[in-house]
Model the fold of this input.
Amino acid sequence: MVDHCIAIEDRDERTRCAHSIVNCMAKLFPKIREEEDYQHKLWDHLAIMSDFKLDIDYPVEVVKAENFNNRPEKVPYTAEHIRYRHYGKDVELMIDKAVRMEEGPERDELVILIANHMKKLLLAVNSDGVEDAKIFKDLAEYSHGQICLSPETTRLYEFKIVAPPATGKKKKKR
Done:
């Protein structure tokens, strides 16, 4: 249909043919009408199917051929080393922030929150269980010995793995 529309010599006739093609597309795929700007999408599809050769008066602004094949710029990623990938870079940044804070109850609370978060992240990788001593050792290593917690004085929260809820519907007995 699109090839036939391109072959029509009269511009007004070609435009009428394009409108009928778009109407057929909308009827073939009625679910597309639920989208917000479905007319724009259909006209874009028509332009793409015609390989941007269809010379008509489009009722909406369609995508241009030069914009269609452009690739987005590559996202620059930093190549920083992360010591323990299961903790991630954010944990390293939080520990650095805690090290720079003044001694006091606010820093102590932050350190406990970071340690609990580290335990939760490690538990996601190792579901068998995580010892608090391992978390304290990693925390001391990250902070270069400036944050030291001991298992005798500090207890971390015990996380439990909860099974996801059942997805199937249960039939009711009558």
User: Anything to note?
Assistant: The helical segments are 2-7, 11-28, 38-49, 65-68, 89-100, 105-125, 132-142. Residues 76-161 form one domain. The chain has two domains: 2-68, 76-161. The two ends are 57 Å apart (CA to CA).
